[in-house]
Each structure stands twice: as C-alpha cells, then as structure tokens.
Amino acid sequence: MNKRSFFSKYDLTLSTSVFLLLLICFFALFLFYPLVYVFSQAFIVDGKISFAFFKLMFTNPLEQESIINSIILGFVVTLTTTLLSLPLSYFLVRYNFKGRSLLQGLILVPMVMPPFVGAIGMKQLFARFGSVNLILMKLNIIEPTGAIDWFGSGFWGVVFLEVLHLYPIMYLNIAAALANIDPSLEEAAESMGAGRFRLFRTVTMPLMLPGYFAGAIIVFIWAFTDLGTPLIFEYRKVIPIRIYDKVGDIRVNPMGFALVVMVILLTLVFFYLSKKFMGTKRYEMMSRGHADIRERDVGPVGTVFIYIFILGVIGIAVLPHISVALLSVTERWAMTILPSDFTLDQYGKIYSHDLTLSSIKNSMIYSFSSTIVDLILGVLIAYILARRRIPGKNILDATAMLPLALPGLVLAFGYIGCFSGSFLDPRENPIALIIIIYAVRRLPYMVRSAYAGFQQTSISLEEASQSLGASPAKTMRKITFPLIIANLVAGGILSFSFAMLEVSSSLILAMKEKFFPITKAIYSLFNRIEDGTYIASAMGMLGMVLLIISLVLAGRFLGKRMGELFRA
Asked: For residue 432, which of 163, 329, 363, 554 sits 20 to 30 Å off, Cα-Cα?
C-alpha cells in the first residue's frame, strides 16, 4: 500500500495524529511502562533472565498459602455471587409484577459503600459479643460461653462483604444478557417439548453466557485483588496484603515484584480461560428486528415469594450500611444489641480533626483533577473510535478498556517501583501519581459513556455543520457536545465518585499523613483504639451519601446503559 492510498483509507488529520501521539505517550508512560518495569524487576537478576524469585515464591509456605487463598477467595466470591444474581436477574427481567421497578433500584443499594468500610460495621455486628450473638443469647439459643465466632480467620467475613458489594455488578450483566435474548428461540424450544429447566439449560443459559462472563471476570478479579476488606478482617494470608506489606522494602526485596507479576499472569490466565470456555460453542441470534423481552405475569403467591426472596437479599445486603450508620451516631457501642447512646458528635469531629479534614480536601482535589483528565481523554478517544477511521482502532479500544480489568494495586506498586527517585517519587509527594492513577483507573467509564453518546448522535448533523463551513472543532463544540452532554455528565459523576472512594491505589501510594485521601484516612482511623472506629464510620457514611447521589444521577442520564459501564 503506497503513501497516498494509506492516507485515503484512514482519517489521519494533523490534529488526530497529534492527539494519537500524545495518547500513545500517556499510555506508554503511565500504563505500560510500570508493567514492563515490574516484569523486568521480577525476571532479571544481575543482568540475566532468572526465575529465582518465582522458585522462591512457590517454595515459601507463606507465599504458597497466600496464592492459594487468593484464588479460592476469588472463586468462592464469584460462585456465590452467581448463585445469588441468577435468580434475582430472572425474577426481575422475566416476571411482571407490581413494584418491580422499585426492587430493580433497591438491588443496586450495596454498591454505594466500599466493602472495606462495610467491614467495619460487620465486625461490630458479628463479633463474639456483638449484636448477633447478644440477640441469640437473649433468645436463649446460645450461652455466653458458647458465643459464635462467625467469621473465624476472616475468610468468610471477606467473602460475605465482597459478595454483598459485587452481586449488583453481576446482576446488571446477567439482566442485560437476559433482556437481549430473542424470545422466538425460547418459544421454538418450548414448542418442541422442552420443559422450563431444560429450556434454561440448553437455550437461555448458553445465550446469556457472554454477558455472564463479562460480569464474572470483573467480580473474580475484584475479589482476587481486593486489599481493603482483608486488611479490616485481618485476613493477611492473601496476595494483595503480601504485596502491600512489601511496599516498604521494595528496593531491597524484589519478591513484591514477583507477586505483582503473579497477579497479572493469573488475571490473564483467567481471562483466557473464560474466553476459551465461552468460545467452545457459538450461540447466535438472528432476529429480524427488535423483539420485546419475554415476560410472564405472576399471581399473588408468586409475587409474595419474589418479594420475600428479593427483600431478604436486600435486607442482608444493607446490614453493613445499617451497622456503619449506627457506629457513626454513637460514642460507645459495646456489649449491647444497639448503641447505648446516640449523638452526631462524630460528624462534628470530621470537620475539627486534622486528619479527616485534610483527607476530604485531598480527595476532592485528586478526584476532581482526575475527572478533568478523564473527560478530556475519554471524549477524544470515544470520538476517534466512533467517528474516525484510524489504523489500530481495536488496539486503542482495548488499551482504553484495559484499566477496567487491571487491578489497582498492580499499577500502584508499579508506580512506586518505576518512579521512585524521580520528580514523581510518591515517597516525597504522591499527588501527581494519585491523580494519574485515579484517571487511568476510571477512564473506561468516561470512554464508554461518551462512546454511547456518539453512537446515539447521528453523524449527519456533524456533516451538515461542516458543509456550511464550520470547522471540526466548532462542530464538536456547537453540535456534538450539547447532544452528548448527558452521557458526559454521567461518566464524569461516576469517575469522580468512584475516585473519591478508591481503595487499593490510595492505601499504597499515600504514605505520608498529609497526603492521605479519604479511604487511607478511614483505614488509619480504624486502627485508633479510642474513637477511631466511630469517626471512620462517619466518614464512610459521607462517602456512601456521595455514591448514592452519583449513582442516582448517572442512572437518570444513562438509563438502561448503566450496566454497560461494568463490563470487562
């Protein structure tokens, strides 16, 4: 292909070429370079390729146990989330009953609180002399000497919190997959005598597998790499905490790099296995047009059963929220089912305590700055993907989406390793790197929101504007931007709110107290013996209110496209 035919095939204007060059530099420096650096430190010893650290990793009993525990944790959380989300999705998508819309909204409630914040409240409820055991003692079900250790070593506590937090993501993906199934295929199977169970097993389930795996891989990676919840439950024999513990001696002990590489490789393996399993058979729909969702009316008995099941799930899911709320409005809660007194003093301490006040200010600066970066990059990337023909478009799309599947602790550890000693050294001042990692981690939300807006906007409007003499920049400002503003607002709201409550990156990069964001301050306060837990709970409630407002606003702007933001 000669030079002329190459440029005639692609829309490589000067502005597009310059932006692509800048984008390549950005991703190379802040996404791929840290990963390459981590691999180099893990595999190269004295200038030679070596597997010594990996050999040591698999011969060290502690590292072995941590790897096995993390894999088991990921699978148990994914399996439990699946078993919970499947019936929820089926009831709310396939059955028509009064109040369904309300329940569909309530299902998403657990997303409004990070699981490591909820863990603070759950430890209070399920402690040996916490509320649950005290209720059982009052009912004479157990004796004081037989108080139940509900979460044992902490494993089941981590599972419990992560399932309650992650099942809405699985639900959104499964519900979308169910809604997109052509009902004529199921009707054809029924006409050939297939019963409900066989119909679900042979037709419905295979057709929804792509949507299911999109949610399952996010749930698994999240559980596999979650740092905050195991820290609160003191379940320390997992890979994320082993990596976190090695941040302090990153220069003298390369084992941390080997563990990070292990996380990356295992993540890639599970991605590959899910794609391979999903691709062993092809299930395609050839509907001639839009088909309505196949719904069944349920009688009074069925409606009551669905309400009991769904409200039961929601009731359990909001236990962390209730317990954190109660902790935030008391000064003491010990040996009683409910707090012995109620006060709003903890919220007042937030604005008088040096650590809490500075952390709120820091998080606002970090999150707002990262959202601006996401807005600029996300809109331009989405515009190129939707409106321009460029070489390697699929690579750009995959790169922009990569942070959705890349654990935050991997990037954060890589940043510490490759930028230490430079002007971006996080040990001295992590502000720039925190803003960048927040932006990189939330960029997929903005890209997908903006891309959805471009898809819904007819390109003929832009062509008409340019045919009248308007430049591409003026067309974007006057025509396109106003039409996709709702999508940008939704993406910006989600990017900002989730950045405000980012856990893993914040815990690793913010080393000095004056740079702590909200989540690092909550963890620091939790470890204070006196009133730390109560102040931390009050801060967690503020974060929960922020996320509630954000999700409601984003849902109003995006509607049914909301679930697309949580797919790998």
From this structure: 554
Query: Is residue 525 a contact partner of residue 540, using CB atoms and an 8 Å limit?
Result: no
Pairing of strands 95-96, 48-49: unpaired
CA distances for 445 relative to 91, 489, 492, angstroms? 28, 11, 8
> H helices within 292-339, ranges in order?
300-317, 319-328
User: What topology does CATH give the domain 70-343?
Assistant: MetI-like fold (1.10.3720)
Q: What is the pLDDT along the chain (568 residues), one digit of tens a residue?
A: 555 544 455 566 777 788 889 999 999 999 999 999 999 888 887 778 888 888 888 888 888 899 999 999 999 999 999 999 989 988 888 888 888 888 887 887 777 777 778 888 888 888 888 888 888 888 888 887 777 878 777 899 899 999 988 888 888 888 877 777 767 776 676 677 666 677 777 777 777 777 788 788 888 988 998 998 898 888 989 999 999 988 877 777 788 888 999 888 888 887 777 666 654 555 555 544 445 566 777 778 888 888 999 999 988 888 888 899 899 998 888 888 888 888 888 888 888 777 888 898 899 899 989 999 999 999 889 888 887 778 878 888 888 888 877 888 889 999 998 998 888 999 899 999 999 999 999 998 888 888 878 877 777 777 787 787 777 777 777 777 777 777 787 778 778 878 888 888 999 999 999 999 998 998 888 877 777 888 888 888 887 787 777 767 766 655 555 555 555 4
Q: In Å, what is the CA distance from 480 to each residue of 111, 242, 386, 458, 462?
A: 32, 48, 12, 9, 7
DSSP classification of residue 330: -
Which of 505, 531, 506 shows the shortest CA–CA distance to 521?
506
Kindly report the CATH class assigned to 1-43+346-568: mainly alpha
Q: Which long-range contacts (CB under 8 A, 24 or more apart) does 519-528 make?
A: 519/114, 519/116, 519/228, 519/363, 520/359, 521/355, 521/356, 521/359, 522/116, 522/117, 522/120, 523/116, 523/228, 523/231, 523/232, 524/355, 525/355, 525/356, 526/120, 526/232
Token pair for residue 278? 């999903």
- What is the C-alpha separation between 312 and 410, in angstroms, rounded? 37
d(CA 517, CA 501): 9
Residues in the chain: 568
For residues 91 and 310, give the distance between their C-alpha atoms in angstroms, rounded to a whole number: 9
The radius of gyration of the chain's CA atoms, rounded to the nearest angstrom, is 25
Residue type present at position 92 = L
Centroid of chain to Cα 546: 16
Beta bridge partners of 49: 44
Q: Which segments of 51-164 are extended strands (E)? A: 95-96
**How many whole angstroms separate alpha carbon 498 and alpha carbon 403?**
14
> Which residue(s) pair with 95 in the sheet?
296
Query: What's the number of CA atoms in the CB half-sphere (13 Å) around residue 135?
Result: 8
- Residue 360 has which token pair? 């709120």
Ranges in the chain annotated CATH 1.10.3720.10:
1-43+346-568, 70-343
Hey, how many other C-beta atoms are within 10 angstroms of the C-beta on 109?
17
